[in-house]
Amino acid sequence: MRTYYRLLPLLFTFFLTSVILAQDFDAFQYRTIGPARGGRVTTVTGTALEPGTFYLGASGGGVWKTEDYGTSWFNVSDGFFETPSIGAIEIAENDANIVYVGTGSDGIRSNIIAGKGMYKSIDAGKTWEHIGLENVGQIGAVEIDPTNNNIVWVAAIGNAFKSNPERGIFKTTDGGKTWEKVLFVSDEVGFADLELLPGNSNVVYAAAWKARRTPWTIDSGGENKDGGIYKSVNGGKDWVKLEEGLPKGLIGKIDLAVSPVDSRILYAVIEAPDKDRGLYKSIDQGKSFTHISDNEDLVNRPFYYTNLELDPTNPDIIYSNANPLVKSTDGGKTWKRMSVPHGDNHDIWLNPNNPDLLIQCNDGGANVSHNGGKTWSTQFNQPTAEIYQVAVDEQYPYWVYGAQQDNTTIAIPSKAPSATTTPGTPIMMNVGGCETGPVIPMPGNHYMVYNNCKGRFSVYSKKTGIDREYSIGASNIYGHNPKDLKYRFQRVAPIHVSPFDPEVVYMGSQFLHRTSNGGKNWEIISPDLTANEPDKQVISGNPITRDITGEEYYSTLYSIRESKIAKGTIWTGSNDGVISVTKDGGKTWKNVTPKKLPKGGRVESVEPSQFNPARAYIAVERHLLGDNKPYFYKTDNYGESWELISTDSNGIPSDYFARVLREDPSREGLLYAGTEYGMFVSFDDGKNWKKFQQNLPVVPITDIILFRGDLILSAMGRGFWIIDNITSLEDQNMNSLGDSAALFKPANTIRYDSPRGGDFPDYPSTSVLIDYYLPSDMKSGVQLDILDVQNKVVASIVSDSTQLKSTKEEVEDMGLNMTFVYLDKKLETKKGINRFAWDLRQKGPWDKNKNRRYKGGPMVPPGMYKAKLTVGGATFEQPFEILIDPRLKDDGVTLDNILEQQQLVFKVIDLLSDAKMLQDNLEKKIKELEKSKIGDAKLDHYKTILKQLKNEEGAYPQPMMVGQISYLYYILSGTDKEPGQEEKERYSELLSQFTELKQKAGI
């Protein structure tokens, strides 16, 4: 018996877990709100065969295509690619349908996303096939043999964070079915570029590069034996290293360019020390080189940039992508800066038939020019922003805040912010700080916004547009050896607002700092809360190019959270793997790092539980150290012990490293995890995880917030995404779905007449989201009724036309008392969880067109309602409330005003229905009389009455009675208000006129 009682709860838990893991969450769809502003794009290309067609490859946004010269862009990689990081795109010269893509960008920042091999399309990007090389890491270049589209070359840089043997030059001769590694130097040396000789594709040049990232530095280059330029003249069978005229000492990243019109000419831009850096030129196919220029603009941050391109018609015209974009017209002797929409330049492609038609890319997106770069297409049509974190304010609708890499902080509305918002028009506000963030609106006063900019704290006023800086230490920390700094602030140094006082703000260096007056005064409330290993406090950038931007400041705090239920209990995590907690507001601290957690990882998030003050969750990633395992942990005793909740077998893949972990505020044990490649959910406190990706593109999830029942995400390459109303996940019924249908309680919904239309940003129309579960697929028998507080049916929605016919009442008294029943195919009948968005609309006026009949009525007034689901013979009911728009109070509009308005609106609807029906009857009567040819007197009588009802044909007709009643309906139902006296009197006037006219008609 004892064994039986022990097993029972285990079996019950197993049953619940099995039910949850079997569920399909496709009913919960993400929507994107932007921003529309482009993010970092690392590669671009075009095709001479279709001059208006171009592709861009983003660092975290995947592959996008334009067919109208950059006027609009659409994604072509979603659903096919396992990574959003793109390194190279090539289109076959003789067939624009054939496209090869190498993943993993070559600008190896610390937040670079790993590549996962090669992809191929044979239908111009409509579909893609993965064709191998999944372990080569970052791909620097792809080249297609112009004589044979199945012969493709790949330059593989390798894993950016550890040594790996899958580096080198790879070649396929069968379109990617098989690959051969034709050049290899070592497991630490990869290849950043390769070029085929025009006219003889057996001649190949390749640029070797030794590069590696750690959390504290970037190594770009090495000894001469580890880098340089290689050449093959027999299709990669044999290689020689080119030496004459090239640097003899340290050598780093190299990019190559061969002239299409003079194959003797080969250029190379080379990272090397001092005067050895810059542009080299060969006029004998690489036998010898001449150093042409040591212009620093050519090798500005070479690990991140370094890309050459030649004018396809003139070998003396050279473009160099770095910071800035520079152009030479004399073979590289002199250079002139070009103006582009954004800095940090990565790639350029020029049409071989018209070099003035070109596409260029940078950290702000991709831009097309028709005039050689004098003017450019917009970057505000490609939603590929890299967002570091997410916050929300308390407006209605709430606005979403974050910081965009290499751009500004931003705030954008979660929904159309007003009923007059132009559909499809993105709205964006800069809210101080800079590209790194965080950016957090003050709770209770969204006009004030707390910011960080690369370690500098500021407070922004939305009312004045002024950003007041109150930096801790008041010192510029850029470019320093971190060991010499008083305060080490990471580039994305965390700030956190106390849940108990909106004026108390925490910020992290190696210490935890606190202000209670907007940054005017700061106090240190902790010791050094990092590992602070001296050998990692070094100048970044080895062995050639110094590069210290704050990304590499190690041993700094990276995440801060104060418990919402235990004031003074504060958790911190550092970017070198230390977790600390204080329970007394900073007086005493304890290092509570999990004993089994490998050293040195970045604590991406700390999350105190909102149900148990001793419980907390952490997300730690070590991919910068070459370890891609996800480390999600939980403690129930203030960190005395920890449980790893991301094992090899409980749902999260072993190479989806951890980004963020958040707890649902309404249901204990409901967790959301963001990883490098997407979202996961757990209903049992992390014991098991299920993919929660749905329509979300594969992209790193940088932050998660739950607010007003919504799930809001920021992503490193695709901006912000929202799932509206996840309250059904919080419902315990979610754990007991089985053989019977279920209806989940809808969330209370604010009544807001939102504008309609526009695919992007994806602003939803106001609706009550009603979730229900069906145990099996059903062809019919599903009906949803909405009932008001008096149990009167407001609307009935059915799932098929057969049911509509059987439910529909007979039309009596001109149908004015008919129940509002309509067919909506979005009332799904498939097995599993389904979602229906009810638009709050009541019965509208009668219309001759059956498809419009009774549609488009006014929104129901605020109040209590019930959803009633009928499945077969079973019914299920759940209450919900429609809430008044909170902004109406400021306009002096009350619930009583809305109810009075509704009463008048329905009187007008009845009058309009009567008038439309009379018009229809008169038209039918006139047709009958015209066919029967029975005298003109009766005919003229009806025509005279019809003219008073119906507008004349043609432009700008005078509105007659139906038009006048329709106009009154329009102005009464457009916005919430107290009805005006003129409207009331106009209704009485129209009613009197119609009654008289109807009596005259006598039908």
From TrEMBL:
Identification of the protein by name: Sortilin N-terminal domain-containing protein
Supply the InterPro entries for this chain.
Answer: Sialidase_sf, VPS10-sortilin, WD40/YVTN_repeat-like_dom_sf
Q: Where is the signal peptide?
A: 1-22
Answer yes or no on keyword Zinc-finger: no
UniProt keyword list: Signal
